[in-house]
Automatic annotation (TrEMBL), chain A:
GO biological process, one term: vacuolar acidification
Pfam families given in the database record: V_ATPase_I
Listed Basic and acidic residues bias regions: 151-161
Example GO molecular function: proton-transporting ATPase activity, rotational mechanism
Descriptive protein name: V-type proton ATPase subunit a
Species of the source: Rosa chinensis (China rose)
InterPro entries (UniProt xref): V-ATPase_116kDa_su (IPR002490), V-type_ATPase_116kDa_su_euka (IPR026028)
Membrane keyword on record: yes
Function: Essential component of the vacuolar proton pump (V-ATPase), a multimeric enzyme that catalyzes the translocation of protons across the membranes. Required for assembly and activity of the V-ATPase.
Automatic annotation (TrEMBL), chain B:
Alphabetically ordered keywords of this record: Hydrogen ion transport, Ion transport, Membrane, Signal, Transmembrane, Transmembrane helix, Transport
Record-given protein name: Putative ATPase, V0 complex, subunit e1/e2
Biological source species: Rosa chinensis
Record carries keyword Transport: yes
Phylogenetic lineage: Eukaryota, Viridiplantae, Streptophyta, Embryophyta, Tracheophyta
Compartment annotation: Endomembrane system
């Protein structure tokens, strides 16, 4: 601001400087680390032409990446084992090289344990399946044998009876050619139940029906040794004849993922195998248990250190990433860093440099110097947790140009205010206030938690919502609405019946008898037949008044900008005509509105405004609001007409003249300058020198002028959204109240009443508190981004991103 | 209470609020100026809203006509 006041917080970016630091190579690592702790320096990439692999510290970055990969692997393993990393603040000093070695060892150990465990688990599962096969197939053979035996017995009895009749035939049949008699082979195993039908069909087709398959269902799902998943399976026994059939069956088994197991017919051997398998199983079980507990304890020890290691590895990577941005001195003994820092941080940075030089036992300290440049510095606002969310609202549109006036200063108040104009209901405001107070009270708890997307957004904007709710309580009192119900809080209504009988109350209406209702809207309006016409007129005019005031504020801020950048052209050929143009049209309209209210005259403002343009010389007649109005209007119209070319023409020509003058001056200076300053100039010319293109400037100015002139109309109209939304809000809430709550209570039935309350609450929360809040928020956002900020805000700067470990940690998580 | 009396109350409340911020969180001239700006903006906004609604009701052209039901 002017010379009278101290610079206002947040109004302009902190003054920034480009600094150069020359760091001896032995203390570079520590220096960068300390600067990262400080977090007030944004390093410039001095090696932007080099690819990541050509840079000095590429190998170190690769190593850090490898460490990060190992840590991720550990984290995966820990999560799978259900042992999340514990938060321990044990800060054992740890060297990065040690950490690397340690991580390598741990990884190898863990991988080995995993591999061993897997192998053991696999053989364990195999044995389990084998055991099942032994059981089921054993049962099958047993039952088959017993049934065969009984059949034989039957048959023998049968043959005994008919021995006389058919001995020869039997003999003939049984003594078929011994060369053709084939020994039946069989295979046993397990097949997934889902595939068992297909398995059977394929077997049947492949062997042309020359097989015999038996399946038995295994009740509990079995862990497959190959995939490690639990699957429901069937035990099968398949009998075949011939070597070719066997090969076919083996192939089919492989294709179906059916595991085969050896099985002997011999009963005694069967029992023996079962015993062996059981013994092996219990042996394996204990081995596996020991392995698992070993792995768990290993993971637990990793988990205790995980946070610390992770932090260290990340820091290491960030440091080397930054070191890669520095350029190596010709002598290869120093690194040269360039970066932006706020001027207030110079001292802290120098202290950090000294500390680093001391701690790393370097013989020479780092050299700190300020460079002069014409390059635009980054924009840096020091925000706190309250102001940062408002700053983000502005930044979402565009980051302020360096040291440009920051609209966030006014947005902090005007944004919630415009929101509240559209959301005026103190009942709803109270609900919103309670919700956001809950967020603020539990702030510490929530800030450490991972929240959902929407919750995260609400939590981030909790202070915005706080102000929004406070203002909507205020405007709620002004609109006199509490869930759309008015209260006579601030005195008696100003209106009463015309006479005692009150006959006219529903036809001609009440009359004003007392003093105006002192605060807000008279409660008598609610539910009356003329409520809507009155509110429409009031809210429409209010939106225009508010809009004109806010747009004027925007233009005034453009004056502060011009003053700050010492740009006289912008004051005289932009600020002044803009102010005149806007106020001679819409400022005048606002004055008319207020005058009409003040005097209670019945002038038609539409008529006045329209004929001010169409026929300004005509007499106003009955639409005259004050004497001399015609003259005033003629003057204002003239001023507005002059203001347009005033905005358009002089500025480009004057800029051209200025440019020529300065260019001449520069060439004179060059001739006289010494070699040294020549060098400096040539250094900075790369950034500072710009071609002056008159046509471009003129077109730019033309666009700017057209935008402003048309914008004055369209922006004013745009503020009417305040009227529309506030009306929609109050109508919706009164519909919910009248048509749901009041109607439900009209019934003398408790069920209907409770349902009515439920519907009312749901509608209020869902439609009014969530959707209406969102829409009012978005409209307030638009009014600020477009209607307010286009009057002064360039927003083409870039943000200050200091190198800081705190920020890095946040980003990654 | 007329228009000017209530406006005066708004001014007084604004002054008290700015004094309060000055006393409660005095953090150097820049921050104080920032707080003062906030308080002034808020007071002006609130006053404007009130004033518009008040003036609009001073000399009503439309009067409330009660609905038939009442």
């Amino acid at each position: 601001m002017g010379g009278c006041c101290p610079p206002m917080d947040l109004f302009r970016s902190e003054p920034m400087q480009l600094v150069q630091i020359i760091i001896p190579i032995e203390s570079a690592h520590l220096t960068v680390s300390y600067l990262g702790d400080l977090g007030l320096l944004q390093f410039k990439d001095l090696n932007s032409e080099k690819s990541p692999f050509q840079r000095t510290y590429a190998t170190q970055i690769k190593r850090a990446g490898e460490m990060a990969r190992k840590l991720r692997f550990f984290k995966d393993q820990m999560l799978k084992a259900g042992l999340p990393p514990t938060k321990s603040r044990r800060q054992a000093d740890l060297n990065v090289d040690d950490l690397e070695v340690k991580l390598g060892e741990l990884e190898a150990e863990l991988i080995e344990i995993n591999a061993n465990g897997e192998k053991l688990q696999r053989s364990y599962n195999e044995l389990l399946e084998y055991k099942l096969v032994l059981q089921k197939a054993g049962e099958f053979f047993h039952s088959a044998e017993s049934s065969a035996r009984s059949q034989q017995r039957d048959e023998s009895r049968h043959t005994g009876d008919d021995a006389l009749d058919t001995p020869l035939l039997v003999d003939q049949e049984s003594s078929t050619d011994p060369s053709k008699q084939v020994k039946l082979g069989f295979l046993t195993g397990l097949v997934p139940r889902g595939k068992s039908l297909a398995f059977e069909r394929i077997l049947f087709r492949a062997t042309r029906g020359n097989v015999f398959l038996r399946q038995a269902v295994v009740e509990n799902p079995v862990t497959d040794p190959v995939t490690g998943e639990k699957i429901e399976k069937n035990v099968f026994v398949v009998f075949y004849s011939g070597e070719r059939a066997k090969n076919k069956i083996l192939k089919i088994c492989d294709a179906f993922g059916a595991n085969r197991y050896p099985f002997t017919e011999d009963l005694s051997k069967q029992a023996q195998t079962i015993n062996e398998v059981a013994g092996k199983l219990s042996e394996l079980k204990t081995t596996i248990d020991i392995g698992v507990s070993h792995r768990e304890s290993l993971l637990q020890t990793i988990g205790e250190h995980y946070e610390q290691w992770n932090h260290l590895a990340r820091k290491e990577k960030a440091i080397h990433h930054t070191l890669n941005m520095l350029s190596l001195d010709v002598t290869k003994k120093c690194l040269v860093a360039e970066g932006w820092s706020p001027i207030f941080a110079s001292k802290q940075i120098q202290e950090a440099l000294q500390r680093a030089a001391f701690d790393s036992n370097s013989q020479v300290g780092a050299i700190f110097q300020v460079l002069h440049t014409k390059e635009a510095p980054p924009t840096y606002f020091r925000t706190n947790k309250f102001t940062s969310s408002f700053q983000e609202i502005v930044d979402a549109y565009g980051v302020a140009k360096y040291q440009e006036a920051n609209p966030a200063v006014y947005t902090i108040i005007t944004f919630p205010f415009l929101f509240a104009v559209m959301f005026g209901d103190w009942g709803h405001g109270l609900c919103l206030l309670l919700a956001t107070l809950y967020l603020i009270v539990r702030e510490r708890k929530f800030s450490n938690e991972k929240l959902g997307d929407i919750m995260e957004m609400a939590f981030g904007g909790r202070y915005v919502i706080l102000l929004m709710s406070i203002f909507s309580i205020y405007t709620g009192f002004i609109y006199n609405e509490f869930f759309s119900v008015p209260f006579e809080l601030f005195g008696r209504s100003a209106y009463a019946c015309r006479d005692l009988s009150c006959r006219d109350a529903t036809t001609a209406g009440l009359i004003k008898v007392g003093p105006t209702y002192p605060f807000g809207l008279d409660p008598v309006w609610h539910g009356s037949r003329s409520e809507l016409p009155f509110l429409n007129s009031l809210k429409m005019k209010m939106s225009i008044l508010i809009g004109v005031v806010q747009m004027n504020l925007g233009i005034v801020i453009s004056y502060f900008n011009a003053k700050f950048f010492q740009n006289g052209l912008n004051v005289w050929f932009q600020f002044v005509p803009q102010l005149i143009f806007l106020n001679s049209l819409f400022g005048y309209l606002s004055v008319l509105i207020v005058m009409k209210w003040w005097t209670g005259s019945k002038v038609d403002l539409y008529h006045v405004m329209i004929y001010m343009f169409l026929s300004p010389t005509d007499e106003l007649g009955e639409n005259q609001l004050f004497s001399g109005q015609k003259t005033v209007q003629l003057v204002l119209l003239g001023l507005a007409l002059i203001a347009v070319p005033w905005m358009l023409l002089p500025k480009p020509f004057l800029m051209k003249k200025q440019h020529e003058a300065s260019h001449q001056g520069q060439s004179y200076a060059l001739l006289e300058s010494t070699e040294e300053s020549l060098q400096v100039n040539s250094n900075h010319d790369a950034h500072g020198h710009e071609e002056f293109e008159f046509s471009e400037i003129f077109v730019h100015q033309l666009i700017h002028t057209i935008e402003f002139v048309l914008g004055a109309v369209s922006n004013t109209a745009s503020y009417l959204r305040l009227w529309a939304l506030s009306l929609a809000h109050s109508e919706l809430s009164s519909v919910f109240y009248d048509k749901v709550l009041v109607m439900a209570f009209g019934f003398n039935n408790w069920v209907i009443r409770i349902v009515g309350i439920l519907v009312f609450v749901c509608a209020t929360v869902g439609v009014l508190l969530l959707m209406e809040t969102l829409s009012a928020f978005l409209h307030a956002l638009r009014l600020h981004w477009v209607e307010f900020q286009n009057k002064f805000y360039e927003g083409d700067g870039y943000k200050f991103y200091p190198f800081s470990f705190v920020l890095h940690d946040d980003e990654d998580e | 209470m007329g228009f000017f009396v209530t406006s005066l109350i708004f001014v007084v409340v604004g002054i008290i609020a700015s004094l309060c911020t000055r006393i409660c969180c005095n953090k150097g001239p820049s921050t104080n100026l920032f707080h003062l700006t906030l308080v002034i903006t808020a007071t002006v906004c609130c006053w404007m809203m009130w004033a518009i609604v008040y003036i609009a009701q001073m000399k009503p052209l439309i009067v409330p006509i009660l609905s038939e039901g009442e």
